[in-house]
Amino acid sequence: MTTVNIRRDVDDKFYRYKMPLLQTKIEGRGNGIKTVIPNMEDVARALNRPPTYPTKFFGCELGAQTSFANDRYIVNGAHQADRLRELLDTFIDKFVLCPSCKNPETELVITGKGNNEDIHRDCKACGRQNGVDMRHKLITFILKNPPKKKVKGGKGGKKGMTAEANVAGNLVFEKGAEDGSGDDDDGSPAATPSNGVPTRGTDIDAMLGKADPVIDDPDAAEDVSRKLAATHLNGNGNGHGADDDDEDDADSPYAQFGVWAEENKDASDADIIAKVKELGIVGKHKVLVEVAYKLFHDDTVDQDITKRAPLLQVLCSSEKHQKSLLGGLEKLLALSPNSDALLAGGMTSKALMALYQADVLDEEVVRQWGTHVSKKYVDKDKSKKVRKSSDAFLKWLDEADDESDEE
Fold it and tell me: What is the CATH number of the domain that holds 40?
């Protein structure tokens, strides 16, 4: 891995403070084009800052929407690596380096309460405490998502991982608005949804049993499912979770959720999360089958996906979750009374595009799904028809990759 001095104005090759060189990858095309930062976590760890902070800073400076979920840090639009590296230098100067000794060994400390909150850099090298520019848009985001104290002397935790991350992984996210307006004028994350999706301080917190679920190191989604399955949240209180193999049973929690979802298609995201919790299937990937099959409308599934994007990002935290979501979508379109008309009109491609633009699906997962017919959810002929209807989207992905390679 290529490393550079944290202070890139220092040419000394023996300078002790290093960070990985920021990498970028441009994905998509047209209105769906976005810049992914694949090594943002490594860079942020070297700076002793949550990876959400520099990502959000890029969005503030560029007037672009940002998103961070499922271990992916994204700035909407096409941005060259050199430009983001310059902005990272600005972030380091404003929010990392000690103004007194120019040392990066600082921590952000929040003092005060309410409207009197203040942020300063506590330098571990010289002992000075220096303030930050409280007028910057990033300040509101930091105050709403304060830095966590790291685990000290713990075993099994990754370096730089917060105590919450060791327990809860990446079930909770912060997401930029999808309405094309970018950041709010007050600098707050445009992610706070109007439909009540659980984020900080809501039902998802109680579900995970902690006060502040914003995660700095989201890389343990599967471990989350296992941990939750072993608790009373996923079972009847005896330490055993719901059986993933019983989804076809009419009395299974999955079937019960499906019946409820079909009868409550207009329920708020918070109510849906509460129902998942009530049935003890928190973190289970197969609940996504019922979400797509019973919660969405066959003729407006793309619009439903856009509306439910924050919910899907909370629930869809691994490759297994993505595959189950695609399985539910396959059932919805293949078993619809209007299946032939919907598939002929390219509804599968429209739905996949909505999922992709909401950053719910990974390219590799959707490509594999689109090229491998399966009999798991519907018969083989219907499965082929659904995948055939995805050709336009898969072609779009290929063309977008070709353009990125040429650039």
Answer: 3.30.30.170
% of the chain exceeding 90 in pLDDT: 48
Q: What is the CATH number for 250? A: 1.25.40.180
End residue of a domain, out of 116, 150, 175: 175
State the Cα–Cα distance between residues 400 and 32, nearest whole angstrom.
10
The label of the residue with tokens 């809860």 reads 168
Question: Of 342, 339, 340, 347, which is closest to residue 305 (Cα–Cα)?
Answer: 347
- Residue identified by tokens 């700035």 is 75
Q: How many domains does the chain have?
A: 2
Domain that holds residue 89: 3-175
Q: Are residues 310 and 389 in the same domain?
A: yes
Q: Say if residue 255 is in the same domain as residue 358.
A: yes
**Cβ–Cβ < 8 Å for 141, 95:** no
Taking only the tens place, the pLDDT of each residue in 298-340 is: 999 999 999 998 899 888 888 889 999 999 999 999 999 999 9
φ/ψ of 210, rounded to 5, equals -150, 165
Q: Of 122, 143, 175, which residue constitutes the final position of a domain?
A: 175
Strand order in the sheet with 106-111: 106-111, 118-123, 129-131
**Domain presence at residue 8:** yes
Question: Are 256 and 386 in the same domain?
Answer: yes
Give the whole-angstrom CA distance, residue 195 versus residue 83.
35
Mean pLDDT of all residues in 349-355: 91
Q: Do 359 and 256 share a structural domain? A: yes
Q: Which of 191-200, 239-248, 355-364, 376-385 has the lowest mean pLDDT?
A: 191-200
pLDDT digits (tens, 9 = 90+) for 18-37: 999 999 999 988 888 999 99
For residue 262, the tally of other CB atoms under 10 A from its CB is 12
Angstrom distances, CA of residue 209 to CA of 90, 233, 280, 314: 37, 10, 14, 16
DSSP, collapsed to helix, strand or coil, labels residue 276 as helix
CA-CA distance, 403 to 39, in Å (whole number)?
22
Q: Are 199 and 252 in contact (CB under 8 A)?
A: no
C-alpha separations of 159 from 151, 154, 268, 276 in Å: 9, 10, 37, 33
Q: Of 235, 132, 379, 165, nearest to 243 (Cα)? A: 235
Predicted structure pTM score: 0.50
Contact between residue 195 and residue 307 where contact means Cβ atoms under 8 Å apart: yes
